[in-house]
Each structure stands twice: as structure tokens, then as C-alpha cells.
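**Backbone description:**
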Amino acid sequence: MVEQGQTSLAGQRLGAPETLGISTLEPGHKPPAMPPGHLVPIRVLLLDDSEEIFDISHRASGRVLFEMVCLHLNLIEGDYFGLEFQSHHRKMVWLDLLKPIRKQITRPKHTVLRFVVKFFPPDHSLLLEELTRYLFALQVRQDLASGRLTCSDASASLLVSHIIQSEIGDFEETQFSQTKHFLISLLKKQHMLVRYVLKHGSWFKLVLSSGRTQKQVIDYVKENEFKKLPFDRKHSRVQYNSSLSPLRSAQHQVPNQVSVFTYECFQIHTSHIRTINIKGICLRPVLMIFICACLSFSEVTCALVNGHAEDCRGATPSPLISPMLNDTGAIRTDDEEDNRRKNCPTDNAYCIAKELLCTERTYLKDLELITVGVLDKEDCVPEALKTLLSSTYEPLHSHHTHFLQELEERLSLWEGPCSTEVKGEMQRIGDLLLKSAQELKALSGQLQMISECVFALERACVASRRLECVCREFELQKVCYIPLNVFLLSPLHRLLHYRQILDRLCKHYPPTHTDYSDCRAALDDVCELEAALRPGLEQIENYQKLLELQKDLIGVEHLAVAGRQLIRLGCLSKLSGKGLQQRMFFLFNDVLLYSTRGITSANQFTVHRQLPLHGMTIRESEDEWGVPHSFTLMVQQQSLVVAACSESEMEKWMEDLKMAVDMAEECNGLTADLLSASKDVKSSGASEVVESEDDLCGSRTSLPRNGNNSGNTLNRGNTTAHVCWHRNTSVSMLDFSIAIENKLSGNLLRKFKNSNGWQKLWVVFTNFTLFFYKTHEDEYPLASLPLLGYSVTHAGESENIHKDHVFKLHFKSHIYYFRTESEYFFERWMTVIRSATVSASRTRYLNRTEPD
């Protein structure tokens, strides 16, 4: 197997100096050899309360034991964690990783070490591995249960609610339909926690009575005891009709539409367990074992939303506002979802129309990011650039806003009950698409100016340091979930999606169908417009990728120039005197660049060397060096041996390298010295010096803009290059071209491997990544999941899903299940996700066809 190189150290991300006291387990590397001596069993209590026994030499250091624990957990970011034990003074002390264990623990057989979090990062986004975030959530759970976590009562109850949410998932009416009651274990020392959780428990769902929280129900029971008063909402401004009840309450004003309900409150087991059954209201069922302050759960939470990074600030509703006030934000149960599906049309024409509606909603929000987010920066955007962007994107935004309104009206009529004659007129979208295509042809001038907008924005950023910083800060905001230039190019991408939608409709309809002629005419118009814009689209797409790489790299100048084309980027392992070292390689049509090991604190790669392609030869060298999937690059009487992670990766790299060498022979005068003057980088023609594997200090200094680190400015850490680095894979420009055509939006039900509940989410797939929203109206995603390196398969019968239209995403130990609402959307999601999980070779790309 090819050993992977070391990622950026957690100690560096913590801002700590490099010392021998901080141990990082490098992925693929084995822990230090066990010293001789008799083995002693040592017990380690993990964060999930499980206990493991490790047999270790009595002469071994603490580092050996710690790395054995990390290997057992498959943990890479070990710097954040440590082992603690109780000393003979009955104080908790840290296990010193440098000293022998026998000098620290006098009775190892009778001592239990605890594996706990030792350092908390300043920003949770610095935690790169999902397992690390999961362990942090377990630590928060333990600190919360033991009272070591200092926070307000409201914050504590909110954290508990997130923990409960991750444990049992969302409400399933099929599972709890006969259990419309709520059990509370009122043991000693738990009354305070119960009170706070119920007081601030916005996570309780009252399914049959929208807009009411558990706090309001408890207030009603507490104030009125057994009086059968109608329930009211404190925040409602509608006055209650006093004729409904003989009693008046000065605190409660009930809206007229709220019906009267009754409740029963009775004791079922001494004074410890009390059951509250409120007729007509289905409380969100929660197993109250969490009251025992020993919460057990299988999926991460608190700072995570079911396994994905989330910033709880701004994403969590107020505890006093019911999460079901807005039906669009509600998470449907299985029965509700099944009933909704039965009431909706199931033919492919409707599903295609709904796909168009969902993707149009996402596209319009992307346009609003430009017309509202960028153009509002009036103080730093030059007037000429603002005029150009406004004249280009505002007419497009106006057109698509009107088009989306028409689509929503048509789909609502399509889904609703109506006569046969009306159905024939309403169950079609060809006329809307034809009208939109004709209007887009009238806006072809704006579409042709999109490339100029990208060039103009880059020129303005070069001329204005302030504008460059503003754009970079804007890209770091959660609302800007992909690079800004990709948003600028979205109108050109949208034409490709219209063509696909119309092509599927024309294949679905027979020629005699009333909607066929409109769809065919609209398809001809869109294809004509796309053909006129495609040459410019290919050029500007390549330029946009070069600009993105220029921001990701340190030590290069003038990367984005005319004539240079990106071919492939990704990870290879470089063979050196120290063994195999993971490096990032960037292949262009004239030069091959590769980086030093690791990522800087500013989320950038430091380019170490450039290899000209002119005269380069490539040959397999697995037998020569004994390294699987290795090949040798020969240029200017020097050789470089690299290895891929798999045979398919090696074949793709060799295929693209040979093609790039052929292109370099035809390219005259393009290759130049791209490396900036820095001690960390050198060209292949420079004199050989010892390569510094771990010297990242120089990469943290300020370099010129093209260099490309602007002081301490943080760059995006979720670009394609970063994902390739962490997943040890690669992508080509052909993969980017395929990804442009495979964008999709819509609702999916998500479930984790060890959870029972399904959570309904609005999901956007773009740029090889799934972005998760609560609803399509949310401003920014709650979490994201890059799919490079993942595999997508059907959920097998052995996995006990027992649902239709379920597919599985898995990468190493990470497994996610997703459900779609129909067979059509199941096939569509499988198709677009496979475009990201299965990297394309040129042969496959040229021979591929789109499924019907």
C-alpha cells in the first residue's frame, strides 16, 4: 500500500509551537516499535464510555500507548487529545508522552486511563476529520452531564436537545402513533434539569397543533392544573373568544382557530414516573434516559448537525419559537411523506417539471448573491465594474424571477385536483420553457458579457487591494458556499441544464403529445444559444479554475495567463530518501507543479518545484522500485518517482501526462518560470539541495499577491484542491466539465448508519459536494459533504432499511443513507452523484452517453 503523507498538524492549527510533547499520528505510519519487556495490560476508558485493554511493554513510553489508542480509533488528528489518570495524590494528571509509563503509573494493572480532549481549537472548522468532531461532541456531552461545562441554563438545555435529536432522529409517526404520551423520570437531583429542558425545549414537536412549544403546554398545565381551558399562544395577537371557556386568564390570549383540547394527568408508578397524556396533541417522543445525565448517542451533535459541521449561532431558532410555525421548515414524518407522495403525480413529466422547479430555486438564489451581495458593496466596487455587473445580471435576475413564479403556479395546479380539461392545459411546461428560451435569446447580449464580468472583476481586484480583501472575506461567508466566480458563471451553466430538461421531456413525450411541439421548439432555441456560447464557456471555465488555484497556491506567479490549460490536479506520493511523501500535483499543458508536504495555516499549498513537460518521458516503475502503482517522470536528466493510491489513479495520471507532453510539444513560448523568488521553491533546473519536508515557516510569510498569501488572510479551506488532498484522490478538467452538467437540487430524507430516524433536508449538489439546508428558503447551508472519494450504491436488503428509493454513500467508516420521493429522482440523484464519485478518464468521457 502507498503510505499517505502527513496533513497539516493540529498543533499548528492550534497555534502552538512545535515541541516533542505534541504527538501527531501520521496517516499510514505505524507507531513506534514496542520496546522489549514483559507486557502489561492497561485499561483505557474512551469517550463513548467503552473500555479497551492494550497490552504494552512496561518499558514503553506514553507515546506508544497514546498512538495505539489513536490507531484503535482510526484517529488522525491526535494532537487535540490526551490520556489522563488519577495520581497517588488523587489528582487527575496528564500522561507524559515522553516518559516511560512505569515511571508515571505505579500500579498500571489497577489504573484506568481516560482518553479525553486536551485542546479545544479556536474555531471548530479547523477540525478536518468527522471522527474528531464526533469525539469532541462526546466530550461536550460528558462535560455537560458532569457539570464541568460552564454555560447558561438555556445553552445547556439547547445542547441536551441537540444530543437527544442525534440519538433518536426526527419524529416518526409510524413508530410513535400509538404513544401519544410523554414519560418523565423524576429521580432525585434531576428536577432542575427537567425544568430547564422543558422550559427551553423548543425541540419538542406538537404535530397536531402547529405553533406550540412544550414550554407553553407545561405553563398551561402548571397554571391551570386540571381546569379544561383551551390552549393559547402567548405570542399570538388574535384575541380569544371568551365564550369558549367559563374562565378567563390574564396571561393567555388564544386565537380563534385553536380548538379546545383536554388532558389527563395521572400517576402510574409511585412518585418517580409520571405520564402526561394530552389528547389531540402528539408530543415529540423522547426517551428520557438522558435525565440520568449519562446521555448515550451514536451520532455527533452539539456543534454538529447529525455529523456535519455547523455554526449554531444563527442556525438555531429561538427556544421560545416553535420550529413548526412555518410548515416549510417542518420535518415530515414517514406517514406524512408517504401520504404526500400518494397525492402527487408520479409520471416522469411531472418529475422532470419538479426537478426544473427545484433547480430554478437554487439558481435564482445564486443570482441574488450577485445582484444583492456583490453590488451592495458600493464603497469599494468601482463604478465601471458595478455598472457592468448590474447591466448584465439584473435583467437575468428579473427574467428568472418571473419564470420561477410561473413555474410554481403551474406546478401547484398540476398537483391540485381539477377537471380533465384543465389538467390537459395545466399539466405541461413546454409553453413556459419556450417562452423563457425566446426571452433568453433576447438576453444573449447579457449572457455574452458574463466572461467579461469575470475578467473585469479580476482586473479590479489586482488594481484594488481593498476590493480583493472584500471579495476574499465575502467568499469566506457561509452564504457564499462555492467560489464567487462560479456564481458569476451560473447563467451559462443554467443553459446546459435547460437543454437536459428539454431533451428528457422530448424523449418522454410521444410526437402526438400536446406539449411535444413546444418542448422541441424550446430545445432548438436553447441548443442554438448554447452552441453560440460554448466556446467562450470552455475558455472562461479554464480561466476560473486557474484563478481558483492561484488563490490556493503559494510561491507561483502569473499562473492564469492566456494559453495555459489545467488538465489534472490531485495527490500523488513522492518517493524520496524518507520514503513516500504525499504531495499535491498540478498538471497543466506546459508544466507540472508539485507542493511541499502539508497545508499552511492560511489553507494554502506551498509550491516546491516545477517540471517542464517539453521532453518529459513517463514509464511504469513498479517492478523497479517495488512500490505499487508507481511510475517515473524523466526530464532534463533528472527523475521523479511517484506513486498513485490505486491502479486506476495511476492510469489516469499517466494518460493525462502523456497527453500534456504532446500538447507541450505544440506549445511555443508558454512555459516560463512560475515560481516566485523564495527559499521554499525551486525549479527543476536549479542546483540540487536537500528538500525540507517539514519547513512550512516560509509559507506563512507575506508574499506578493500572485504569490499568493496576503499576510494572515485566511483562504477557503473547502476548494477542490483541499478535498483532493484530504481524500488522496485527483480530478481532471473533464471531471469539472461533467460536474457543470450534473447539478441538482431537491428534498432528500437522510439517515445515519446507527440512527433510526429520517431527517428531511433541502440538498443542493454542485462542485462535487452536497450542501444541506433545512429548507430551500435558507440563506446558507447548515453543512456540506464533499463526495470525492465516496462510493454510492443501492441500499441492500441486509442493511434493514425497509424503504423504497434508498441509496447509500460510504467512505471508509462513514455511511449515510438517503431516500428520494420517486423512482425518477432516485435515478437522477444516483446519476449526478456518480459523476462526482467516479472520476472520468478521457476514454470513458468521450464514450459516455446520458441515460434516458
